[in-house]
Amino acid sequence: MKTLLSLASVVFFGSFGVVSANEALxxxxxxxxxxxxxxxxxxNQRYSELDQITPANVGDLQIAWxxxxxxxxxxxxxxxxxxxxxxxxxxxxNTLYALDLTxxxxxxWSYSPVQEQDVLAVMCCDTVNRGVAYAxxxxxxxxxxxxxxxxxxxxxxxxxxxxxxxxTKGESNTATVMPVGDKVIVGIAGGEYxxxxxxxxxxxxxxxxxxxxxxxxxxxxxxVDPEKTTHLGKPIGTNSGTNTWEGDQWMIGGGxxxxxxxxxxxxxxxxxxxxxxxxxxxxxxxxxxxxxMTIMARDAESGIARWFYQMTPHDEWDYDGVxxxxxxxxxxxxxxxxxxxxxxxxGLAYTLDRVTGALLSAExxxxxxxxxxxxxMDPASDTYGRPQVVADYSPDQQGEDExxxxxxxxxxxxxxxxxxxxxxxxxxFYVPTNQLCMDFEPFRVRYTIGQPYVxxxxxxxxxxxxxxxxxxxxxxxxxxxQIIWSNPETFSVWSGALATAxxxxxxxxxxxxxxAVDAKTGEELYRFRTPSxxxxxxxxxxxxxxxxxxxxxxxxxxxxxxxxxGLTNPHDGMGAVGRYEALSEYTxxxxxxxxxxxxx
Length: 600
Known about the structure:
By secondary structure, this protein is mainly beta. The chain contains six helices and 40 strands.
């Protein structure tokens, strides 16, 4: 009998029409023994069909083997398994290893790119990289300096490379890439340097640039059809990417694309979110600042946008909209609908029809959120789809040089880039979250190419009336827009979750624990302390009929930047150093892959 995900895969990936899809890659995605892109599959569900590990036996997990990466910074992302080979990446300098799973993890080859150290100065929030992807016999990586490289998966030889950005302008990269059909889709980072965000498609075969879509700018730059591309069901009209900006501010407008990507082969649409507008000081950029803070659906072949939805118009809080889009299907009012669910940094969980862009729900997935009273869901209203901003927590309404206290969430969001998981068995989303608020004071700043362009000072603060810790691991039911259970954590949960067909959900903690909980109840079933804090994403694969669970540990990222970079000033890291200073009592620097399995 097929599992629920197998059945879903048949529906989701079953017909391509005229879509030029990589059928071999999709077949590998459907094989639960492999893990060929960072999110597991195009739907971003981070769900494994493997069911050998269950609530009854997960307590017996043991370490099967380990691998040291040799790098002591934040290890985000996770390993890939393609056939009998595991691919393990590191943060800067972005070394990549191919390991033979049939021979005790012997190193088959390694790739160590040569990069200018200058790029480190423009990388926000540690020197992380969220991993590599596989397609067509190649391993793809975008390095910190924005070089996109295609390596021969068998030998590690460079097939082709291309420069995607310019670090001297503040452009860098921390994100993974996504192969789609005959293309590899890549983004760009640097919103705090006045970078204008874009997504680019390169040819898998030879690295030729096929299209580039900017987040803001003239219609020909943002790749839209003014009469057919829609926002909340209405055509966006001409000049939508410039007419909500003052003058030519859109040219340094931010909206970078350093997050995650999803893809629906049947619709041939890719989905992603854009980041904060530049500069943080909202008084310097009046207007909605389109299309920053926007969920975008684009045709994979041409790059032309089908629909947009701007979640936080005229963002005032640095609530980057780049978190993952999770694709599911279910019946709503008797009609089967294709859905997209997104847990945004702004604290709202959105569900949209991913074909039409219709907004179906937008609710707080953390009760501490106070910057908005909610989203106007009345289609007849002039403010339909917009969040209703609470004046007391609005930097724009309070004015420049005014310190606004107690804004929830902080700029790190209720959830940052750490990806959630979804289980078709339970119908629940499993969401790693932060419990932080902030004080925010905007000030006027001038743009200088290649220099920080922020215009605000921030301090991270504790949630008042919370459980006393800095994070929760939450089960969310989007059918009723409610938290089903919530596990408090001492620190923010900065690790990506994994749901499994065995009824177990895994995630990591900043102290370094790999934890396993019951998918239905949240009951903790297992924990193991790895050598360093976990900001990596848990994955699972099988070898010779045995299920394995693997995760990278290595403290760092925004939450662990103090330890990772040796910072002691509590205001550094946009306040993260002071708020997470107690981490030094629990963990230390490291860089290790830890692989778990049940006893033979």
